[in-house]
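Tip: read the tokens left to right.
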């Protein structure tokens, strides 16, 4: 593997787990540029607090400037947009200074411009993607064209999920560049297994945006069924348009924290008896426009030794260590049955939590992450 002085990273956002992975990139300097969303969500707040847990990666928030109409035409015709007045001048300057470029997701116009500028300047481009073949958008023009073009211009391609691996295996010229490398890794020095809990009223934990596609309503209804035979409590971390649901009477106590400081998340996971991620894919007729891509909060819970229950949306089934952990997204009775299986059996929870901890500790070890970087950056 050739020595690399500086790597510049472009992405639509990041998690603390993204920074943890980038810290192990074998370069002297790593700079991550991401756009300012202007959204008030748990995800964005976690992004804002993540930088305190890293020392090597510089994070710089930038305002995204939209492309002009002629840029779209030039780009889709396959010509360069480097000389366009709408190209990000600062981005080009940063690429000129870097030895290599890392791109997080290849299917936007922004991504295509980064790929084209990198090609024109002779910089190696390493692309990470969590995209799924189930997303209808990626099957349509112009996004499919952009995706194929960006992949073609990439030096290496890292599929971050099993679904992404399936998607890019079907694209010409992608297979020979393809490796499996999740960009979101878990810092197992922060998220680790604590003492086993033994309580008469086990706690179910939900972390995420309180929006319909995150499945909160399905979880609340399922727990109402389970609470008839098993005392329990629900701990919710997050905020959103469905926050009002937590003020209704569901037959069991609910604790709600709109936000937890980043350093507090490990203890939040360890204090829970069961973690649930009930995400539901967003469908418009026959078209799938969103599904749960990675489920980083579920992996954080697994690394903390807390057993998880996940829906079958997107990539979630692939992170489970037991098929019984997975339920049909949006099905209240299926979720209630799955929750009951673990809430009523503390020994099964302990067994599952140990298996999850062992899986994440092995897969996200520092040595494993460095080995993936070496595999990605080899010329």
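Filled-in amino acids:
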């Amino acid at each position: 593997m050739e020595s690399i002085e500086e790597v510049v990273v472009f992405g639509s956002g990041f998690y603390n787990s993204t920074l943890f992975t980038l810290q192990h990139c074998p370069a002297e300097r790593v700079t991550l540029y991401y756009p300012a969303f202007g959204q008030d969500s748990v995800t964005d707040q976690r992004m804002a607090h993540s930088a305190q847990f890293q020392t090597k990666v510089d994070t710089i928030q930038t305002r995204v400037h939209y492309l002009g109409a002629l840029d779209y035409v030039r780009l889709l015709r396959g010509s360069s947009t480097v000389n366009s007045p709408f190209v990000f001048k600062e981005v080009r300057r940063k690429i000129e200074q870097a030895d290599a470029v890392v791109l997080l997701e290849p299917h936007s116009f922004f991504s295509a411009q980064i790929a084209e500028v990198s090609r024109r300047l002779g910089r190696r481009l390493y692309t990470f993607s969590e995209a799924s073949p189930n997303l209808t958008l990626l099957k349509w023009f112009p996004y499919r064209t952009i995706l194929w073009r960006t992949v073609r211009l990439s030096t290496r391609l890292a599929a971050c999920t099993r679904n992404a691996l399936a998607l890019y295996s079907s694209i010409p010229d992608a297979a020979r560049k393809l490796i499996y490398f999740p960009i979101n890794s878990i810092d197992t020095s922060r998220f680790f297994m604590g003492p086993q809990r033994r309580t008469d009223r086990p706690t179910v934990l939900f972390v995420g945006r309180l929006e319909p596609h995150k499945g909160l309503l399905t979880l609340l209804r399922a727990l109402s069924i389970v609470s008839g035979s098993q005392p329990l409590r629900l701990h919710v971390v997050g905020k959103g348009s469905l926050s009002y649901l937590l003020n209704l009477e569901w037959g069991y106590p609910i604790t709600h924290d709109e936000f937890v400081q980043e350093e507090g998340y490990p203890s939040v996971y360890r204090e829970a008896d069961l973690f649930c991620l009930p995400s539901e894919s967003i469908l418009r007729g026959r078209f799938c426009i969103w599904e749960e891509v990675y489920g980083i909060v579920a992996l954080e819970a697994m690394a903390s030794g807390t057993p998880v229950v996940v829906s079958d949306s997107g990539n979630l089934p692939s992170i489970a260590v037991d098929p019984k952990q997975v339920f049909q997204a949006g099905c209240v009775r299926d979720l209630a049955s799955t929750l009951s299986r673990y809430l009523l059996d503390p020994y099964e929870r302990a067994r599952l939590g140990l298996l999850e901890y062992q899986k994440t500790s092995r897969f996200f070890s520092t040595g494993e992450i460095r080995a993936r970087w070496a595999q990605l950056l080899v010329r």
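DSSP finds 14 helices and 15 strands in the chain. The mean pLDDT is 84.
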